[in-house]
Amino acid sequence: MIEQGTKEYWRATVALSLGSFLVFAMVYLTQPLLPLFTEQFGVSASQASYSLSIVTFFISIALLFYGPISDSLGRKVIMVWTMLGAIVVTLAVPLVSSFESILVLRALQGVFLAGLPSLAMAYMGEEFSPKELSLAMGLYISANSLGGLSGRLLSGAAADAWGWKASFWVIGLLGLSFFFLFVRMLPESRQFRKIPFNGKQALSGLVRHLRNPVLSVAFLVGGLHFFVFLGSFNFITFLLSGPPYGLSPTLLGMLFITYLAGTVSSTLSGRLAQRWGKATCLMAGIGLFALGLIFTLHHSLIVILIGLLIQCFGFFFAHSASASWVNSHAAFARASASSLYLVSYYLGGSLGSSFLGVFWEAWHWPGVVGGSLLVLGVTFSCSWWLHRVERVQDESKVDLLSSR
Predict the structure, then answer these.
(1) Which residues in 349-374 are b (16+ Cβ under 10 Å) and which e?
(2) Which of 55, 193, 322, 388 has its CA 20 to 30 A from that of 349?
(3) What does the pLDDT average to over 179-187?
(4) Mean pLDDT, residues 141-156 taken together
(5) Contact at 8 Å (CB) between 241 and 247?
(6) What is the rounded CA–CA span in Å between residue 136 and residue 254?
(7) What one-character DSSP code corresponds to residue 337?
(8) DSSP readout, 253-271?
(9) What is the radius of gyration, based on Cα positions, of the chain?
(10) Residues 383-403 pLDDT 10s
(11) How far is it, in rounded angstroms, from Cα 343 to Cα 7?
(12) pLDDT value of residue 176
């Protein structure tokens, strides 16, 4: 097992973090390009947004397949080839001339981009010592938020300077450099044991995970948190673009700098989970998430921005804890369990805007905050149940050691 402080530990952690950074940079690189797509191709704003939503949709579908396949083929080989495929597709996008072609390539890119997120956590669960898993997971998830932020900022800056095609060239070439580092640094799997692929058995494993309340509740919590997080961030842009704030699209894009709070909190959550327990960290993250939302009800722009920082801090703090919970409690087919968590996560994110849109239409931003707090009340109750499960498990371990 890989122990903290060893050269192998930091090589594996840095490699997976670089891969995570790159994946999420590629996912979100079109977000600042949407207005340019409407001008360049004559599509509507909603059609332009398909360049992002089609990626997340195909990621959620592909996640279901990589876990079972990797249980028979291995983790690293699939992560390597899917990452390379995503980079090749990124570099191919500037070569096409129609928006429809861009959507086709982005859909293909989503299939490739699902490879690393669906397997990285399983790799860590198998290769890292259990006591070191939470910290490594926190660093990995920190790279998620940093990659999403950097992808938006780099893409926007490149497009302002040289046009939208340059965004894909910049991210693609950056991806190539990260790819070679990833391949070189990530250690080969040593604890992995191949399982011959069996479709029926793979489906059975997924069903067993879903029937396990200790895992399925964590799946639900992770999905509902992204449900609230993405939905609320979508509607805060409507609030701040209108009176009395009147923020420009450029300034609205800068709101995502608040994601840096998530980079810090994911790592911190991983460290504190070793002391407090994962479920306790999960509840703490939900509390901060809710507090940040409440801050945004204030009329002051400064207070709203502080609220967004707290919201990001709490969301990623909780996300790190729930993802780590799944990995540590999956007794078999860890990749399949990780895939199910991420499927729930991405599907939740895709549905959040529809749910919170009802509250926006009825009560505007206070309604969005109220609807979000209702959902967080559900996830807190679920997390309290997980806390009780964790406490029983800890007591069982103490009794077992005492009996020896």
Answers:
(1) bbbbbebbbebbeeeebebbbebbee
(2) 388
(3) 89
(4) 81
(5) yes
(6) 28
(7) H
(8) HGGGGGGHHHHHHHHHHHH
(9) 21
(10) 898 888 877 766 555 444 455
(11) 33
(12) 92
Contacts of 178 (CB under 8 A, 6+ apart): 18, 19, 21, 22
Residue with the two structure tokens 């507090």: 291
Residue type, position 316, single letter: F
**Nearest 5 degrees, angle CA 144-CA 276-CA 323?**
30
Q: Whole-angstrom Cα distance, residue 139 to residue 127?
A: 16
- Residue 191: φ, ψ to 5°: -95, -10
Instruction: Find tokens 């080989």 and name the residue.
Output: 77
* Nearest residue to 126 (alpha-carbon basis) of 72, 189, 80, 183: 189
- C-alpha 391/C-alpha 168 separation (Å) is 48
Contact between 325 and 386 under an 8 Å Cβ cutoff? The reply is yes
Model pTM above 0.85: no
pLDDT at 231 over 90: no
Band of residue 100 on the pLDDT scale cut at 50, 70, 90: very high
Q: Is the pLDDT of residue 252 over 50?
A: yes
Task: Please give the Cα distance from 198 to 189 (Å, whole number).
Answer: 21
Helix (H) / strand (E) element for 44: namely: none
Show contacts of 102-108: CB within 8 Å, 24+ apart. 102/37, 102/51, 103/50, 103/51, 103/54, 106/30, 106/51, 106/54, 106/55, 107/54, 107/55, 107/57, 107/58, 108/58
Answer for the pair 367, 270: CB distance below 8 angstroms, yes or no.
no
